[in-house]
Amino acid sequence: MTDTATTGRALPHPEPEEIRLESVLHALSDPMRLRIVRELAADEAELSCSHFDLPVTKSTTTHHFRVLRQSGVIRQVYQGTAKMNGLRRDDLDGLFPGLLDSLLAAADRQAGRLGDRS
Q: Which pTM does this prediction carry?
């Protein structure tokens, strides 16, 4: 599990062959983590942690990002002092074809049904 950051602060990430379906599903089973992934998928760019306005404490937000990173759903790298987050769509699509798109579509349908667009 390695990743190099330009600042020398590396964060551990699972290699694609280490990503497990049950870890991905667990990571996406939490509403806040699913919300983060939906935002990353919609924006299709790396976003800083501070971009996300989650109704939880900073330590809980940090936990959610860590779970997503350790499961292989997102990649985090430092750019200066900002921790940037990107969806590992290529890795996930290669390992589990159609899974991410299906989950995101289901989350969108659920949000519409429940009147929650977050």
A: 0.86
